[in-house]
Amino acid sequence: MNNEKKENEIERLDFVRQIVADDLESDKWEGRVATRFPPEPNGYLHIGHAKSICLNFGIAAEFGGTCNLRFDDTNPIKEEQEYIDSIIADVKWLGWDWQDRLYYASDYFQQMYEWAVDLVKKGKAYVDDLTGDEIRRYRGTLTKPGKNSPYRDRPIEENLDLFEKMKNGEFPDGSKVLRAKIDMAHPNLNMRDPVMYRILHASHPRSGDKWCIYPMYDWAHGLEDSIEKITHSICTLEFENHRPLYDWFLDELGVYHPQQIEFARLNMTYTVMSKRKLLQLVQEKMVNGWDDPRMPTIQGLRRRGYSPAAIRNFCKTIGVNKFNSTIDAALLEYCLREDLNKTSPRVMAVLKPLKLVITNYPQGPTEELDAVNNPEDENAGTRKIPFSRELYIEREDFMEEPPKKFYRLAPGREVRLRYAYFVTCTDAVKDADGNVTEIHCTYDPATKGGDAPDGRKVKSTLHWVSAQHAADAEVRLYDHLFTKENPDEAVEGKDFKSNINPNSLEVLTDCKVEPSLADAKSLDRFQFERLGYFSVDPDTADGKLVFNRTATLRDTWAKIQKQQKA
Ligand code: ATP
Ligand code: MG
Question: In the annotation, is 121 catalytic?
Answer without folding.
Answer: no
